[in-house]
Amino acid sequence: MELVCPAGTPAALRAAVDAGAHSVYCGFADATNARNFPGLNFSRAELEAAIDHAHARGAKVLVAINTFPTAGEEAIWHAALADAARLGADAIILADPGLLAHAAERHPGLRLHLSVQAAAANPDAINLYARHFGIRRVVLPRVLSVEEIAAINREIDIETEVFVFGGLCVMAEGRCALSSYATGQSPNMNGVCSPPDHVAYTSEGDDTVARLGGFAIHRTPRGAPAPYPTLCKGCFVSGERQGHVFEDAVSLDASRLIPALARAGVSALKIEGRQRSRAYVAQIVSAFRAVTDALAAGREPPALALARLAEGQAATTGAYAKRWR
Amino acid sequence: MQNDTPELPIFPLILSHAMRPLPLWPLSAGLSRLAGHILHRHPGINNRIDYYQDHVFLLDITDLPLFLTLEPRKARLRAFRRSAVVPGHDAGISGPLAAFLAMLHGQEDGDTLFFSGALAIDGDTAAVLALRNALDDAELDLAAELAELLPPIAGLLRAGLPGMQHLTGLCLQRGSAASERAW
Amino acid sequence: MDLTVGPNLFFWSTEKLHRHHTELAAAPVARVVLGELVCSKRLPFWQDSIPPAIEALQEAGKEVALTTLALITLKRERRLTADLAAMGLPVEINDLSALAHIPEGTPFWVGPLVNVYNEGTLRWLAGRGAVRICLPPELPPRSVSVLAEAARGCGVAIEVWGHGRLPLAISARCYHARLHDRAKDSCQFVCAEDPDGRDVDTLDGQKFLVVNGVQTLSQAHACHAHHVEELRAMGVDALRLSPQSQGFGVICAGYARLLAGETGADDLLATLRAAQPGAAFCDGFASGHPGVNWRAGAAG
């Protein structure tokens, strides 16, 4: 199985390639990609060098242009697409139907992957994107169980890629305006969820309180493990209940489900974390490469101990297990 | 779920005490020279910090008797006595020296340290992220930078580094195996 | 400019739905979207109310469309979508996969949960048969303006969210069930206990969100009364009103009077406040700000 690894910076891309990534995904340093955080991402020149570096070592580079172009500013997204194609990207990861239509028309030879941000959650949707835009692979949204993924693969002709580790969207991806409601910055348009310039940590008594756009997300004793200040992992009050209404402060770890995902027909495994450092990338990628190598050789895959690197330092298999719902 | 964060080494108290009476201006001058050298050799750092270059970053290294402030555009890295008031800043990171060095040298992930509570941030979160990501991409090696800046001590550094790392448990260079053993 | 009533997002009793449909037949609105948007498990309880509602609304001169689910994953839900497309009424797609069941060239509507952010997507949908698009509520005014112009060029009517709690997210997980320590498959339909969703407040006690089964909405009621003139100038064709359990007739009548120039936005707001004491309002998205903000037409 192909291991698709995150790179927020050229250094992280080199770390991923060195650690055994089959493919690395990355994006330009602007609103065209869904990890538009300060200090992250690639200039055109950096992408060119990164692609040369990866190709020289047998790895592929997938460029994510997976936000929804802003009305009146589509040219920025079209230019990103043209530049990624010109620089030799092995595939482009897209979500917006308008941009997909443009890519299919203007760059007919270019390999297109459907981003998780398109939230194509059933065979009808996937076949629609395949028929209209010629996508070759779909990154499945994190709302599906392993059984459902197997059923989807029986009804489609293109490759599927699934997330196996990292941050977990609890809501259908690309269809969530929670962060936008609180901050005015939209994941779909601006490429950033819980934008850091709207995050504030304050000390109150013995606690650290994290707020997003002025709304308290969680309150933890100082020095205690804390998650990202995303709304879907926040602690709230509803009636008599106080707690994590949407999801606990956990992240996804499906490493143990990889054999089952392989049986379900999945072609590629994706690791989330373009906002993480090269240290994280190196550790996670080499751990997962050991699993895919073992599977390829017919050996029992090693059990991974990755909880320390996970958000909230706790893991879930998310929607892959049906009881999660 | 299991929280298996290893303990971070704490900078030896005796060394920390020994540093207290030292005058700070020579230290600030030396640190700024080092910062200038690094930022000049790695222009990508300030490019990535982008519009946070004029911010004042507080590095609150909790096991040192000092606060440091970094002003990226001016390449100024200054020391302040911990006993005095906290210097004014736009964004702050606090944690033990081991965490700072391990993050700088690509041994530990900043978010992991943050999730585990080893590092805390305050003020402008976006600026902290920009700085963290810029430094991560630069793949710095403090020992190598020091050796370049001060050729006379290069040999001494090379000879003394493994022992120092072993003694302190700190990650003093990029790609060092010492910290992996210590952590 | 006229009014469209969106599908009821909540799980109401058949009696309550019947009263709602009767009220809509008499309301000064041009069209109504019926059907289940949020959870396919609710549908068996009320689907028999749909045919008489269609009949009553059409007899009262309303255009009627049927919504798809917002998130279609199960085989049963795909079949349901195919059945919907065969009913002879316009379908409002709220999950793009529904297009697979609508024959090429058959006119359809696009709901606010489909990501129409730019001209390229709008034109692609128009080419596929879209005749009416309700834009995503988070779109800033500049985008609305550009899209309204693009829509005119391809014969598509543009709707904008007018009033009601904002649909912010959809999930595979049921938060109502989770709040009752139940699995989604044994939810026992607890979402029926909260006819306008269940409040979710912050640890500081700020009113923030509501959950409605697998859906998350704003707790504040979006109220775009003060933006109507601006939207009209942009060429927006309709405002969408989203049903709520109390005072919805007042909302429909109030907005109709506003569109007809018989009342001002401030007067409408006073009426809405009186009909729903204590309700929080928001209109931030309409001026490109955080959705939760409330400016009510204040300058700047």
Task: Write structural notes for this entry.
The complex is a heterotrimer of chains A (325), B (183) and C (300). With 325 residues, chain A is of the alpha/beta class. Helix content of chain A is 31%, strand content 21%. Chain A has 2 domains: 2-168 and 250-324, Aldolase class I (TIM Barrel); 188-243, no CATH class. The longest helix of chain B is centred in the last third of the chain and has 18 residues, at 151-168. Chain B has 183 residues and is α+β, with helices and mostly antiparallel strands. In chain B, α2 crosses α3 and α3 runs antiparallel to α6 (125-138). Chain B has a 5-stranded mixed sheet with strand order 3-2-1-4-5. Chain C has a single domain (2-166, 220-287), classed as Aldolase class I (TIM Barrel), CATH 3.20.20.70. The model of chain C has no long low-confidence stretch (mean pLDDT 95). Chains A and B meet through α1, β8 and α10 of A and α5, β5 and α6 of B.
Using brief descriptors, characterize the structure shown:
heterotrimer; A: alpha/beta; TIM Barrel; globular; B: 183 residues; alpha+beta; Nonspecific Lipid-transfer Protein, Chain A; disordered N terminus
State the total count of DSSP E strands of chain B. Answer: 5
For this structure, what is the CATH homologous superfamily of the domain at 13-140 in chain B? SCP2 sterol-binding domain
Oligomer: heterotrimer
Question: Which regions of chain B are unreliable across 5 or more consecutive residues at pLDDT < 50?
Answer: 1-5, 176-183
Q: What class would the helix/strand composition of chain B place it in? A: alpha+beta
User: Biggest sheet of chain A, open or closed, and with what strands and sense?
Assistant: 8 strands, parallel, barrel
Query: What general outline of chain A do the C-alpha atoms trace?
Result: globular
Number of DSSP helical runs of chain A: 10
Helix content of chain B: 40-55%
Largest sheet of chain B: 5 strands, mixed
Q: Report the span from N to C terminus of chain A.
A: 27 Å
Q: What helical percentage do the residues of chain A reach?
A: 25-40%
Spell the H/E element sequence of chain B. HHHEEEEHHEHHHH
Chain pair sharing the greatest interface: A-C, 68 and 73 residues
Strand content bin of chain B = 5-15%
Query: Helix tally of chain B?
Result: 9
Largest beta sheet of chain B: what is the strand line-up? 3-2-1-4-5
The CATH topology name of the largest domain in chain A reads: TIM Barrel
Counted beta strands of chain A: 15
Note the gap between the termini of chain B. 20 Å
